[in-house]
Amino acid sequence: MSEQSVFAAELSWPDYDARVRDGKVPILLPIGSMEQHGHHMPMNVDVLLPVEFARRVAMQTGALVAPPFTYGYKSHQKSGGGNYLPGTTSLDGATLVAALRDVLKEFARHGVRRICLFNGHFENSWFIIEGIDLALRELKWGGIDDMKVVVLSYWDFVDKDTIKRLYPKGFPGWEIEHGGVLETSLMLALHPEQVRLERAIDHAPASFPPYDVYPPKPEWAPASGTLSSPKEASAEKGEILLQVCVDGIVKALKTEFPN
Amino acid sequence: MSEQSVFAAELSWPDYDARVRDGKVPILLPIGSMEQHGHHMPMNVDVLLPVEFARRVAMQTGALVAPPFTYGYKSHQKSGGGNYLPGTTSLDGATLVAALRDVLKEFARHGVRRICLFNGHFENSWFIIEGIDLALRELKWGGIDDMKVVVLSYWDFVDKDTIKRLYPKGFPGWEIEHGGVLETSLMLALHPEQVRLERAIDHAPASFPPYDVYPPKPEWAPASGTLSSPKEASAEKGEILLQVCVDGIVKALKTEFPN
Amino acid sequence: MSEQSVFAAELSWPDYDARVRDGKVPILLPIGSMEQHGHHMPMNVDVLLPVEFARRVAMQTGALVAPPFTYGYKSHQKSGGGNYLPGTTSLDGATLVAALRDVLKEFARHGVRRICLFNGHFENSWFIIEGIDLALRELKWGGIDDMKVVVLSYWDFVDKDTIKRLYPKGFPGWEIEHGGVLETSLMLALHPEQVRLERAIDHAPASFPPYDVYPPKPEWAPASGTLSSPKEASAEKGEILLQVCVDGIVKALKTEFPN
Amino acid sequence: MSEQSVFAAELSWPDYDARVRDGKVPILLPIGSMEQHGHHMPMNVDVLLPVEFARRVAMQTGALVAPPFTYGYKSHQKSGGGNYLPGTTSLDGATLVAALRDVLKEFARHGVRRICLFNGHFENSWFIIEGIDLALRELKWGGIDDMKVVVLSYWDFVDKDTIKRLYPKGFPGWEIEHGGVLETSLMLALHPEQVRLERAIDHAPASFPPYDVYPPKPEWAPASGTLSSPKEASAEKGEILLQVCVDGIVKALKTEFPN
Amino acid sequence: MSEQSVFAAELSWPDYDARVRDGKVPILLPIGSMEQHGHHMPMNVDVLLPVEFARRVAMQTGALVAPPFTYGYKSHQKSGGGNYLPGTTSLDGATLVAALRDVLKEFARHGVRRICLFNGHFENSWFIIEGIDLALRELKWGGIDDMKVVVLSYWDFVDKDTIKRLYPKGFPGWEIEHGGVLETSLMLALHPEQVRLERAIDHAPASFPPYDVYPPKPEWAPASGTLSSPKEASAEKGEILLQVCVDGIVKALKTEFPN
Amino acid sequence: MSEQSVFAAELSWPDYDARVRDGKVPILLPIGSMEQHGHHMPMNVDVLLPVEFARRVAMQTGALVAPPFTYGYKSHQKSGGGNYLPGTTSLDGATLVAALRDVLKEFARHGVRRICLFNGHFENSWFIIEGIDLALRELKWGGIDDMKVVVLSYWDFVDKDTIKRLYPKGFPGWEIEHGGVLETSLMLALHPEQVRLERAIDHAPASFPPYDVYPPKPEWAPASGTLSSPKEASAEKGEILLQVCVDGIVKALKTEFPN
């Protein structure tokens, strides 16, 4: 317990209560997953990154960071390699929806009226939307209609100029940035001891036909588990990404949660 | 990513896969909660403690620790003060059941056949049982009938002699040990920077009638959120608890997961 | 139909309506199970006993007894032998939760505002709590926020002195009192024609390690299905239990549902 | 416990096990409800009648009667007056489906392969079908594909000649026989102490337009709660019904569950 | 998009909005199924017919027809041949309930307060009731308590005189009118190009014992999939049915949705 | 009924059965929605278009088109304007998932082993994936593990060259192509009588910040309901789109469902 921590769960309840009960202080909730990220990175990337973004944003805005969701929705072949890969450990859609609905309602009970979800795992996106929709519906039934929820994926804050700087040879697209330059650079900047870039498999960006097949076809995705090569990743790129995204998110939150 | 980490999500997928695919290596899964723990402790106690127990046990047994469940079932008045208290952030029973069912099935898909759940939050207990039951049922439908799951709450490994040593003035019972000597001593031993013992409220052990009332009656529980006084807690007691419980759990796992 | 019956379902609707519509008269709802209770007792013990306690309490308090839940949650190895035993016939947790939620809401629709659940089966406990929580939540959504629910298990009203009288050789603990002296004595007092004490298997109290294993291990529990020996049971002890528990429950209800 | 009881829950588990484990002995499961039945009858009619039919059929066929479902699906205006009436206490459809699914699967676990559901409440019908369908589906997933389930409502065994004898002035149709001559006569034959025929309201048979309206329109149904007058009911008619229906059901079960 | 269409989904949103936002204009919602209808008719009968009835009624009343439910509840052996037949494509009960609940709530959000469900598939009936009940419950939680829903099956508007005209040799009953004279005549009147009466199998009306068996027994139902012979069907009879039913439904809606 | 129809539900069951029972013939299942599409188009666009694409593809491949899903998932602000707009009529995520799961399993029961989902509504995407995943899981439990499902959204088959031809002034991106040039051109080519291009509101492409807000902010999206202007739409462009997409889809299906 630390009276000054930005992590809500590191506060005692009286300290937390004093911070949130009037509804002004936003709660930042990282939604991650346990998912394979290639040979060169651990499986906690989608938790570590949104937690760190949330922490930095909280430092600048006075928000509090809630405990992350450590498991997320199933990996999709075109954005995470597919849910048949070893290590990837996923929830059914309904489970993620219910968990998010429950937690949002609990924060509302505490008085919180501003929540920002920091998504770290692309496939969570639509189930996050449904979880919010159900939570807002039930809150309304319970008489609370002033909750506001912002949802963001940090990579959406990387602007075009930054993309050009980071991907001088061309940007493969966010969808196949799984285990690629973006995530690897961020991990190199933040948790270099958890990256073994020398183990990364270099390969051409994954290229998929314009449709999906189920069960997924292992031959469609690189055997490494990454969808684009991380070889060009660097801590410097990670620092750039951190700065650009944190700045963008801070600005967004100041707009949506003024004063 | 570290090839030697005991935390499964800190491994790359090939390293993880090599460890678990033959089913021998147990997965230790901490099930926590975000719950108020009085004025003197943070709200992450029920996550930090089972994670640390799991880590120590994994170090001795070669098991791997999965990412913890960071939210748990609703706090009950007689064992956690009640779910109306600020900060306590809980899941519906069905949500916890579904999340556990999903994750157990995913580990089974990886090849895991031995799982030990480290419960850190009393109220999770019965929903854990249901989650396991549903997972084993569905695994059987899918043709897997050799999964074995052990469930434990670390405090159940404190033997009578240790209780006498730790509670020379008498043991109030595990149920009202919420935020009391046990948890506080463990936190003092492990995370002293997160404890403010001087802020603890001293009070007589909570005493409840032999029935429950809903909605809970705030006047039944101490306003501090603890159910027994943590004043007699100490890091020394925490060390004793750590040793006794880790020894007991290691022995249990060697019995249930031999070789 | 009897205008004077304490059983709600034995009343005509106009008589029932006249009794409950102003919300003063409590409904007592027995929650049982169909569960094996050893060689010497039938499988309806967990229904018969709470129904009888409810009936006696209703006679003294003017409450009404609702039809019992005849099936309950899965038997747990350490408190009921395990759900693999023949005859034990159980519901999924979600089913019990839903059934209780539905019925509580229906009573509220009738005008009832005081309900006491008489649990006869240990394993129902946490799913009862969840059922109540969901019912109160939905009632609140529907504009009803003055429902009060008491939950009790009759054995919790046996005080320490009575325990000493009934178990002169030492009390094994409620958890393993499955099919033991308590239940058998009560059945001998109330339904002696349904007990064959001569068929009871005498054995040492079941002793379990401080953790659970799934699937359950048949070798952990006595083959008889009882967890402690019923040999010392007697109708006299049953009468004592009846009196102590009924007195305690009546007092509790007068406290919680005054006037 | 009685070794000879036809009620499954009155047996000890070894006696029950010996009876059912080879799958030959049918389980008869009464599905009732708690529902208003007019001014002259109690609200347990839909439980008492199928239980008694099941008991009589079990006596003649060697089957066992399981504990009844004491709550059922919502009363419909055209067949039970509507679910807004006081005293009627109903389950959501999904709850009834789940409860039946669970219990059928448990009997299958015991070895039972022949089950007959005795429905006592018209509105249960379609949810019973769904419960069976889900149970058979899951049993098949678990490797059991030889379960056979018969479903019946006792009134469907009343043949045309008997109808003429019982309703000399014309038969109003089963749908509006709620609390009318059929049920009242059976109750007079079986539980005369629970009937107050002098309190029955005489009225013309309810007549409804060929569509339904929700919320139900109280002005459509007689205020008494019955849909046809019970005034012509008699114990003699009840005896005729008992004989005709029991004979018919016994014959049906001998056909479907030969030897 | 047509400003004058009676089909709601053929309007642009501003045109639709102008029509429905004050709650006066009823929405007619056809609930069908994809179900085998014998050798002589396609599997869309239960969609085409209620859509056409709704269209005609809308033309006369100013109502709007919503997109139909194209899949419905499982076919029952005694009313549709059984859900094991090829081509019949059904939903679980819970799915149909949820879909109807969702859609009713959405129409309420638009301002609609009058809805009439046109059921084209007998087996949908009870799940429709549950869907409405859940929708009205949730709407009430959300503060909307003036929604009125009418449910009808068009065949219930065929009066006794018409039955005599259409079935001069005797009426087999609606339950076994599956693929018989009623539906075939309507299809001949409306979609003659979709009927091959020469392929119809002539057979005696299906005759079932007074109980059901699961899994269904194929030998109980005619192999053709129809439950009564369609041989006497004609376009003329179809025209009579159309007129009688449309007149009856229009009258009912004018009664229930006056002005 | 037409023996030659490409619409599965226009076949009689014997004709359908003959086509599908050996598993070779694919079922094409359009998944639509009822959703506002601006002032100039009706609300059935997301049904009409995938049905027509499926029909054309079926004509060329011998596949069969199943009845469409007429309702879909909630409109998202950035891709459909938001689910608060009048006329948009949506399902909860769980409902869509369940409906798809049910229908896929039914087709499998018929013998179908090749299914292609034609999605017409962007927001359905992830719930379609979950529905397939649950269906394949349950089919596997039931012993069927050779089902193959292709999912596509027709717009993904528009190649870069075609985009340049259709959007000479620059392509706004698929996400905001809601009610824009693509859909409007297709409707002009296929259903010109349902388009009122003169009513279309011309506006700059919607531009959103890189995050979402809930409840949605009406000021973020054009009041018209379209996200990009349809003014440049034409039947000619529609014909180009039809040809390009149909060709692409036919090729894809020949690849995935060879022979």
UniProtKB/TrEMBL annotation, chains A, B, C, D, E, F:
Gene3D superfamilies: Creatininase (3.40.50.10310). It is an enzyme of class 3 (hydrolase). Pfam families: Creatininase (PF02633). The keyword Signal does not apply. One of its GO terms (biological process) is riboflavin biosynthetic process. One of its GO terms (molecular function) is creatininase activity. Keywords: Hydrolase, Metal-binding, Zinc. InterPro entries: Creatininase, Creatininase-like_sf, Creatininase/forma_Hydrolase. Its EC number is 3.5.2.10. Belongs to the creatininase superfamily. This is Creatininase. It comes from Borborobacter arsenicus.
